[in-house]
Amino acid sequence: MSLVTLLPFIVLIGAMFLMTRSAKRKQQQAAEMRTQMQPGSGIRTIGGMYATVKEVNDDTVLLDAGPGVELLFAKNAIATVLSDDEYNRIVHGVEHDLKSDADLVPDDASSLTETDEPAADASTASDDKPIDLGKKDAAEEPADATTEAKADAEPKKTDGDSEAK
Predict the structure, then answer these.
(1) Is the distance from CB of 51 to CB of 43 less than 8 angstroms?
(2) What share of residues in the chain are helix, strand, coil (percent, to 5)?
(3) What's the predicted TM-score (pTM) here?
(4) What rounded mean pLDDT belongs to the chain?
(5) Where is pLDDT greater, at 15 or 117?
(6) Which DSSP string corresponds to 67-79?
(7) Three-state SS at 65
(8) What digits encode the pLDDT tens for the residues 38-58?
(9) What does the DSSP 8-state code read for residue 52?
C-alpha cells in the first residue's frame, strides 16, 4: 500500500484521538468541580434548576430549592457550581457592580446633548428659514401650470406606432 491510500485513515484516527481526549478532559473537569462542592454553594442542575447545596454525600447531593423544599440529586446531575455573586444575580436579582457604584447612565438626558452654544441661539438659528426640498406648494403655482404639467407628464397614446424602439 502506498502512503496516499493510508493518509485518510491516519487523519481519521488522529481526529478521533483528539475528540476523545478533549471529551475526557471535560469529564475530568466536571468531576473535579463536583468534588469541590460544599454546603452553601449555589448550583445549576442539568435540568436548569437553581438551588443551594445543603449536604454532599458520596454519590448524591441534598439541595435546598426554596423554603421547606429539599431535593435529593445525583452528583452527575449538577451542571455547574456558581460563584456567590453569579448565584445571587440569577436567583435573587441582586446586581453587584465590582467596578464602581456610580451610575453609568444619568437620570437626565440633557447632559448628553449639551453643546458649546447656548440653547437660545441654536433654536433661533434653526427657525430663520424653512428648508426648500425642491417641492412647491400648490398655492404658489398658477392653476394653468399644474394642468399643463399633468398633461405633459402623461404619455401620449398612439395606435401602436412608436418612434423609439
Answers:
(1) yes
(2) 40, 20, 40
(3) 0.46
(4) 76
(5) 15
(6) TTEEEEEEGGGEE
(7) strand
(8) 898 899 999 999 999 999 998
(9) E
